[in-house]
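Limitations
The structure tokens in this dataset are predictions for the assembled complex, not deposited experimental models. Users should treat interface geometry with appropriate caution, especially where small molecules or nucleic acid strands are included. An illustrative entry is reproduced here so readers can see what is and is not provided.
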Amino acid sequence: MKAFLAIVRQTITVSFRSGGGPLVGLIFFLSVVIVVPFGVGPDLNLLARIGPAIIWIGALLSTLLGLDRLFQDDRDDGSLDQIQLAGIPLELVVLAKAVGHWIATGLPLVVAAPIFALLLNLSPAALGILVLTLLIGTPALTLIGVIGGALMVAIRRGGMLVAVLVLPFAIPVLIFGVMSISAVILGPASSFGLPFMLLCATTLLALVVGPVAGAGAIRAARE
Amino acid sequence: MRLTGTGLASERGGRLIFEDVGFDLADGELLAITGPNGAGKSTLLRIVAGLLPATEGRVAAAPATDGPLYTFMHYLGHRDGLKGSLTVRENLVFWQKTADSDGGIDVLDALERVRLLHAVDMPAAFLSAGMRRRVAIARLLVVRRPIWLLDEPTSALDARSETELGELIAEHLGGGGLVLAATHLKLPVPVTKTLRLGSAP
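Predicted assembly:
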């Protein structure tokens, strides 16, 4: 447990100290949210309707930032070798990295989302649900993302490749997240309970699959 | 503790690097692994550490260790494992916490041994290559483990630090530790056994 927390803390500290950490992700998130109203024009009703989707897509894209370097940096500076000798299971190492990465990059998105959502004319009732779905959904995005990040240990180039690998697997999270909010916006025509529970289930699934697959990817990189 | 490697072979990228390599090391012994560049010195150390799978052969300890063998090892490689944005102290405390150590010495004491006490709160990115290596050596002290795998341990070190590293290795051996050192230079300590890899003299 001590080792787990130490890795979480180190990941957060390194993220904050090098490259601005959460700030870059937030500004990128804000950019995505701002760009869409310019694209679709000044139709407030339309914005309110597609708002949740835009917020979710923005969150998804910002989550991908920095994932490519999450394990590559550790490989390049030798920490990955050392952590494998430390005696803590690699699955827990990956989980700890994911938790740290989420706290540094995902949590700020959740906190900022209601403010950004005002730009998209979202109703106050939808704001609460938006934060709730993001709070549950963004960890899933990070946990799926660490698999891509771990694959980058073997593949010696990063950048967009992580996005290409991870995005398809993040689609269920996006669907269930947006559906949950739509229920509130569109009224009784659609239900909130089912998509929301599926969102929770996706997160729980990612909680198991992410660390195991990520650790597998790192092990496979020992060529 | 007795550490043995038997019939080790490594093939990487279709090239056979070495085969039928073995060693047998007891408490207090130092094995120097020598050979020209590309002979597989680093590869052998990484195999012993479990960071690379051996194509053939195995590494074992007698008596069998309680827990994975690698948790009894320190690996000092080319890449020092330091996070540039963390201070020297933060780096060492991190390794102390992750590698559940019993009986490692205090971080400040370890830094005093490698004469880096003045740099304790300096981000590791501002250290020179030799200083970084000395911090990595301090890691061997803050976490106590019986087997040291040292890959070119004297690289980037000045004459004085080299002598001091020799003293640390001698102390470790004196306390019943085992050391495997890959080097093409002369080690600053008396060598117990030598393992030559590659065909060149």
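Some entries come with short summary sentences. For this one: Residues 74 and 80 of chain A are 5 Å apart (CA to CA).
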